[in-house]
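One chain shown below:
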Amino acid sequence: MEIIDHMPALLAAGAIAGFLAGLLGIGGGVVTIPALFIVFGEIGVPLEWRMHAAIGTSLAIIVATNLSSVYAHHKKGGVDWTVVKSWWFFMATGAVAGSLFAKHLKTAELIYFFAGLVALLAFKMLLPLDRYKLGTKLPSGSFRFISPGIIGFFSAVMGIGGGSFSVPYLTLYSVPIHRAVGTASLAGLVISVSGGFGYLFGGLDVAGLPANMAGFIHVPSVVVVAIAAVLLAPLGAKAAHALPKTLLSIAFGVFLIAAAVRLLSAV
């Protein structure tokens, strides 16, 4: 299999993504997507569909990553199951819509879309904005359904588990950062499963994709990256609960900036 030649890079990306999934409550897509984009160029994925394949494969990997991360955070009491129980349907609907919308975007458009939104999110985590809150508790009424849908939509378009949106959103409503990270892991699981199915079905009618692809999902890459990610996610979760709140927020912001720069360099 040609993928064997790229296994060291994919294993490294998976290990970093898994650790960050546990540490920051993200699915690791901002780490795996640039690596997958480069590898897919080597194995013959057409440029017009290369970013779509990287995103779809990333979401499939995030399913395994977040399963491990959710379990690790749950053991430490860091997951608010009530929040995700009220969010999941609207978040899943948004994720499916986002994955279908992404099929109509060009590769460069997807990259700019991703990098721009990630950079904006980073400023919220890096700047001393802790005293600025939208409220002391999450919205109630019909408005509480809108934000999960938007988070699901943009997360699926970008190929991430949603933690990059969920964590800042939750902290703006006074949810402690450690609990926001754990809850974002569970929300990301809903997004990755829903969005992953969207990319799977969306790529079934696309001609010219190489072997071992299920729609826009490259199965061998999912297996290789997911194994490394699952092994490292519990270590990231353990580190998250040991770090102080300010340091964790700064780490999250720096990570997002680095991810945006890395993706732009792939255009």
Q: What stands out?
A: The first strand starts at residue 213 and ends at 214. The chain has a mean pLDDT of 81.
